[in-house]
Amino acid sequence: MVDFSQVHNIDDFKRLARGYLPRPIFDWIEGGAEDEISLHNNRTAFDRVRFKPKTLVDVNLRDQTTELFGKPMASPFAIAPMGNLSLFWPEAETVIAQAAAAAGIPFALSTASAVSLETVAEKAGGRLWFQLYVFKDKKVNDSLVDRAAAAGYEALMVTTDTHMFPKRERDRRNGIGLNLKKTPANIAAVMARPRWLWNVVLSRPMPKLANLEREVSGSTTYEALANYFLSQRYNGFDLDDLKRLRDRWKGKLMVKGILNVEDALRAVEIGCDAVILSNHGGRNLEGSAAPFEVLPEVVDGVGGRIPVLLDSGFRRGTDICKALAIGAKAVMLGRPAAYAVSGAGKDGVGHMLATMKDEVDRVQGYLGCTKIDQLNRDLLLFDRQRPGANATMI
Ligand SMILES: Cc1cc2nc3c(=O)[nH]c(=O)nc-3n(C[C@H](O)[C@H](O)[C@H](O)COP(=O)(O)O)c2cc1C
Q1: CA triplet 119, 121, 123: central angle to 5 degrees?
Q2: Which positions ≥6 away from 5 have C-beta within 8 Å?
Q3: What residue ranges do the domains of the chain occupy?
Q4: Of 59, 256, 367, 386, whose Cβ has the fewest other Cβ atoms within 10 Å?
Q5: Which among 283, 284, 339 is the best mutation to test ligand 1's pocket, defined by most ligand atoms within 8 Å of the CB?
Q6: CATH, range 10-382
Q7: Which residue stretches of 31-116 are H helix?
Q8: Element (H, E) at 24
Q9: How does pLDDT run across 284-293, given as a tens digit for each residue?
C-alpha cells in the first residue's frame, strides 16, 4: 500500500514512477520527439492564458459533471490511449480502466494494449473507447473494428498522427527498440528497480501486443507481434480511409491527432462524432503546436457541430478549466495515468483521478461556476503581449 500523504499533484506521481521504473522505461513514457520543444510547449502554453474570476457568485453547490454523446461523465476528463501499459504494472490496461469506471470517466484502450480489448471490456466495464492504429492490412483493421463493436466499445478513436516513425532520441540513446537492449547500463537500470522487475518480468509472462494475437498467422511471440506492428505502419491514411471506417463502425467515431481546422471540418463533413486535438503528447512531430494553442480556432471553426476534445500536457485542474472555458467538451490525460499506475497500481490511478477532480472543483469554485458548462472565454485573459496576438490566439 502506497502512502499518498505526500502525493499532491501529477509531478508527485511522476516522482513515484521515476523511483519505481527502470530509467529507460521511465524515459520512454516521459520523452518527446527530437529536442522536446513541443513537449515543453504543451505545458507552457497554459501559462499564456490566465483567469479573470467572478467572485460575487454563490458557489456553495458545485457540479463538474458533463455529458458526451448523451451520456454522463463524472468529470470533464478521460484517460487517453497508451500502448504497452502493462510494461509498467501488471494488467495495467485493466487496472486503469477499472479505476476510470469507478471514477465515472471514460477510458480509451490502445490498439497496442497488452491486455486484449475483450478482456478489458469483460473485467472493467464503464465507458470504453477503442483506439485504432490503422494498419496497411485492411482486413486487420476491419477485424479490430468488428471485435471492438462486439465487445461493446462505445466509440472508435482513430489516431491519425502516427503514420511516420517518430524520432524520440531518449529511446535511441537508451537502446529501446523492439526490446530493451541488453547493455551494461540497461541491465544496471533494471537491477536497480527490483519491485518493477518482479512485478512485470519475473512473476508473469512478458506483456505483448494482445490485440494482435488473433490477427496474425504464425508465431505470436512478443517479437513476432511487435515486428508485425512495426511492419504495418500505414503512411497512406487519408479521408477515404476515414470514410471507410465511418461506414463500417456504427458507434461513435472520434478522430485523434487533429491540429488543423481544415482537418476538423473534413471530419465533421464525413460524419465523425468528435475530434480530439492532439500532438501525441509531444512524442511525434517536433515543432507541432500545442493542441491548447489551436483550440480557439478549431472550436470556432467547428461551431458546435461536434464536440472538440483535446490532450497533450494537461496536468492541473487549471489547465482543464482553461480548455473548457475556450470551448472544449473534455480533455484526455495521458502520462498522468501512466505515472500513477506505475508507482501504485489501481489505488494510484484512483488517487490521481481524485486529485484532478478536486483541482477542477476548486478552480470552478474560484471562477464562480456552479456548473462546468458555465466556464467561458469571458473568464480568461489571453496573452496579448506577443506581436499579432488577439483574443483568440494563445
Ligand atoms: C507511453 C505512451 C504511450 C502512448 N501510446 C499511444 C497509443 O498507443 N495510441 C495513441 O493514440 N496515443 C498514444 N499515446 C499518446 C496519448 O494518447 C496522448 O495523446 C498523450 O499522452 C497526451 O499527452 P500527455 O501525456 O501530455 O497527457 C501514448 C502516450 C504515451 C505517453
Answers
A1: 65
A2: none
A3: 10-382
A4: 386
A5: 283
A6: 3.20.20.70
A7: 37-44, 92-103
A8: helix 23-30
A9: 999 999 999 9
Model pTM? Answer: 0.97
The mean per-residue pLDDT over the stretch 195-211 comes to 95
pLDDT confidence tier of residue 78, bands split at 50, 70 and 90: very high
Who's near 76: CB < 8 A, 6+ residues apart? 64, 66, 320, 324, 329, 330, 331, 360, 372
CB neighbours (10 Å) of residue 89? 27
For residues 341 and 84, the answer to whether their CB atoms sit within 8 Å is no
Nearest CA among 306, 349, 307, 297 for reference residue 124: 349
User: Residue 384: pLDDT above 90?
Assistant: no
pLDDT mean over 238-248: 97
The cell 459533471 sits on which residue? 65
Q: How far apart are CA 208 and CA 190, in angstroms?
A: 19
Check if the beta carbon of residue 334 is closer than 8 Å to that of residue 80.
Answer: yes
What pLDDT score does 105 carry? 98
The helix or strand, by DSSP H or E, that contains position 296, with its residue range, turns out to be helix 291-302
Residue 217 C-alpha cell reads as 498467422
> What does the block give as the cell for 30?
516521459
Q: What percent of the chain lies above the pLDDT cut of 70?
A: 97
Grid coordinates of 102:
469507478
Which ligand 1 atom is at minimum distance from the Cα of 276? Answer: 19
Catalytic hit among 8, 40, 163, 280: 280
Q: 170: which 3 cell numbers? A: 531518449
Report d(CA 351, CA 345) in Å as an integer.
10
The residue whose CA is least distant from atom 8 of ligand 1 is 83
The two most distant CA atoms of the chain are separated, in Å, by 67
